[in-house]
Description:
Strand content: 15-25%
Number of strands: 20
Amino acid sequence: MLADLRVDFAGLELKNPLMLASATPGWDGQRLKEAGEAGFGAVISKSISPRDAWLEHPRNGRMVLYRVGNKPVGMINMELFTTQTKDEWFNKEFALAKEGGAKICASILAMPDPDITAELVEEVQETGLVDFFEMNVSCPMPSKGVGMHIGKNAKTLYEQIKAVKSVAKIPVMAKFTPGVSDIVETANAAVEGGVDAIAISNTVRSFAGVDVETGRPILRSYGGYSGPAIKPITMALLAETAQSVDIPISAVGGVSSWRDVVEYIMLGATTVQLATSVMWKGWGIVQEILDGLAAYMDEKGYKSIEDFRGKALPYITTVEELCQEPALKAEINQDLCTNCGTCHRACFYDGVKWDEGHTWIDQDNCDGCGLCAQWCPKEAITLK
């Protein structure tokens, strides 16, 4: 293997770009240690709060797999924050986590008063056991004043970061909420406040659904949606941010394979976080992704992550500009086409014609949407 998976993230050298996201798999020091041993370059704790009010989790069910047909495409959770006290983290959990060999990140729950958030940062860094911070300004579940309620407001976010950076002696990353109207405004506010890195993004606020037999909610409160289905949302937020600011970005959401990691890096990410896939498939997925990433880089001749980071960004434009480019039309490879009729159902422009068992494209009617090509089971249709 020739590929060098090391990355520089806000001044920290990580052995690879994978981070364990702040979630269930990192609820204590033992699990963070196991994550490090599994191969993660960095591991992030569950969010620590200066208050004990959120130390309890709902224990009447708080996770639901969201399925389409019988295939899980996402997961709704009501996980909240750490169940360990500050003292437990300071006196035991962080030290245990370090035994795993990964860089240690403490997730800090930003409080309504920025000075209280800064005090917590000082307490944690005095232990000397953590390498960087992740500010949770994005959790979709808590009451007004914390979580996403801070991250949605650029001014409030700026004040939080400014306060934390005034005392932090190690790098600070802010974890954004996807529920913002303008991610660029949010990112610029964070950079102005002095943040060292950005994580994009937390889970999407959601509802688990209703049991139609009983009329009762499956989970009786709102949660955060994670898993493969949210990846397109993350990609859009990531690309917009990477085009606007020049600080390291950690992409979070929907990672199931090394291909997902490559896509995020090509959209500007320096590191990539995952948690749901670990919960679904176990620690073994970490090495599986790392092996796939290294093999891909060797095949392509990439010696380092930087060789392809941001590679896709120059090709992203506006839909208005795309309207001015030459039109593409669908074409059918008759050697591959089985006349199954799938493309007929997909076309609403009357561009697909069928006569005497022969399927062909009416070039005058084809509007170049590409849906027929996406649905073709034989990949017989292309846009040219």
